[in-house]
Amino acid sequence: MIFKNYSLYIKRKKILSNINIEFKKGMIHHILGENGVGKSCFAKSLIDSLPYQGNIYNKENIILIGSYTNIPSSLTVKNILELKKEENTSYDKLYELLKISLIKANSKISELSDGQKQKIKLLFYLSKNPSILILDEFTSALDKKSMEDIYIFLNEYIKKYNILILNITHNLTDLEKLNGYYWYMKNKGIIHYNNKEKIINDYINLI
Q1: Bridge partner residues of 9 (DSSP)
Q2: How far apart are CA 147 and CA 31, in angstroms?
Q3: Mean pLDDT value of segment 160-182
Q4: Coil/strand/helix, residue 82
Q5: 8 Å CB contact between 28 and 138
Q6: Hey, how many other C-beta atoms are within 10 angstroms of the C-beta on 77?
Q7: What does the alpha-carbon distance between residue 51 and residue 120 come to, in Å, rounded to a whole number?
Q8: Which backbone phi and psi does 14 adopt, to 5 degrees?
Q9: What is the pTM of this model?
Q10: DSSP secondary structure of 175-205
Q11: Continuous H helices in 16-142
Q12: pLDDT on residue 72
């Protein structure tokens, strides 16, 4: 995904100015930044939920999954599984990677733990075979075991499918468990860091 002279305004306030960067395919790109800097707005602009200026190339077939992304809570796990099995040929691989068999099929979505809900979300949305996956605070509020399961899945998934993953996060464990590229949103820019320890140190000192 390539950005050329990209700028983003929210209610006339400039969030990002004249961005010229590239997110390479086949990698996880971690995006950090202080609260209120506009990370979620940036993510929403990539799926055309918010208008932007400039150009973004190679942004087809994007899926955004955030803490605000929901699937009907009245459905059961079985309902979701039956729907997605009919739609997609990659269902079996996703089912296995996410260890969905450990979740009771008759449970309603509203009855699941946060970790289980995130796994069902991944199965639901990744069955659409996205070229780009955007995760917005996806591991926030998860217990340690659920986070570990998600990390194992994402590392395996990107190897198998070679897609581009943007991971917008405050959770520094994401950086430790998921190798990739590191970016920092500040001063209306998106700055690339070559060093994981450097971005973690700068982030800790700013929050």
Answers
A1: 14
A2: 18
A3: 94
A4: helix
A5: no
A6: 21
A7: 30
A8: -75, 120
A9: 0.91
A10: HHHS-EEEEEEETTEEEEES-HHHHHHHHHH
A11: 39-46, 77-87, 91-97, 114-126
A12: 82
